[in-house]
Amino acid sequence: MKVIGRVGFLPWDGLRVIGAVEAVQRELSQAALLLRYRTHADDRVDGLPGSEATFLVRIHGTGRGGRRRPTRRIAVHHARGGHLMRALTLIPQQPGSLAVTDIEEPVPRDGELLVDGLAVGVCGTDREIVAGEYGWAPPGRERLVLGHESLGRVRTAPDSSGFAPGDLVVGVVRRPDPEPCGACAHGQFDMCRNGEYTERGIKAIDGFASQRWTIEADYAVRLDPSLEKVGVLLEPTSVVAKAWEQIDLVGGRAWFEPKVVLVTGAGPIGLLAALIGVQRGLEVHVLDRVADGPKPQLVRDLGAEYHTEPVTDVAAAVQPGVVIEATGASPVVLDALSATKSYGVTCLTGVTTAGRHFTIDAGALNREIVLENDAVIGSVNANLTHYRSAAEVLARADAEWLDRIVTRRVPLEDAVEAFSSDPGGIKTVLEL
Question: 388: helix, coil or strand?
Fold first, then answer.
């Protein structure tokens, strides 16, 4: 490409040259190396069987006075007999094992998409897995590829899959248990009864924090192209899309037309829950202990009201018909249980750390819930219905507002930094 520009055949910054460079990066790059051509679609491209080996790219430059600059080595290994890629992996339940490593590039099976990874989100679940609290590697393997909040672009797709190269996609996290239980048999694997489900990047299936990944076409969700920077928020949005569905189902046991919602917690889950509330035309209030930083303005720009007072005070003032608890903080959870007005629904989405003890008046709490026909529900995970609903939510949202939720972007090679403290931040994303 440099020669083309130097001899004047085409300008080095022309659209055709830039497009060619992007095509080489997209179609021929392999773990920071290059292929002369792709062989996965036809292993006899050059008339010979077998795979094409990658090679190093060297960039030579000329400095002042015609002196040749030192060679810059773009890649450091030569892979033959199997393509390698970079991935964020760990040994589950072994703290300190997180590392960016070389692993074999996946080969799509029948009915699967091959996807170029773009980004993965980092959430509390990932941090707990990194801390060694839980997590399970695929059978027969020591290490697990981390990452369940995905975003990628389709590289190859089966003709009958409904997808095409270039599609922006997100992978569904959970897979039904093999028995299956009644819920899994009905496509409601987010409600699995026996716990034998598996999950990408969490339980027995590699996650999405790799340069390429494969996924069954039935578990891929297409996104609007405008969401390329923020599509990684689809998985957390699916979680709150399910929470709102459950609120509707529980409230629907009688007349139910709530006007006001109180969301406790202005992290990603809380902000996305508030987004759906605004899209539903509700009066939305968001409570968080943080008084500065990006959270208050994000809430106000959404058209909602931001609060830092105690839950009991805010609830008494706004009289919510729905409370969505998204902090997982024990004192806030306890206050949220009795924060709605009569016939209210409180949905718990935050997971509380065990072992913390508080004194409560259980009799008074029970009396209020019973006499007011209140309901308290828990909601976690999501199925395909919720992912598709979440995709519609994000497509309707202001992409610039969504992008402001992501307060830190970290390249894959520096992935360990993504798990360091980020005071005042909201969402960390790994760019692949």
Answer: helix
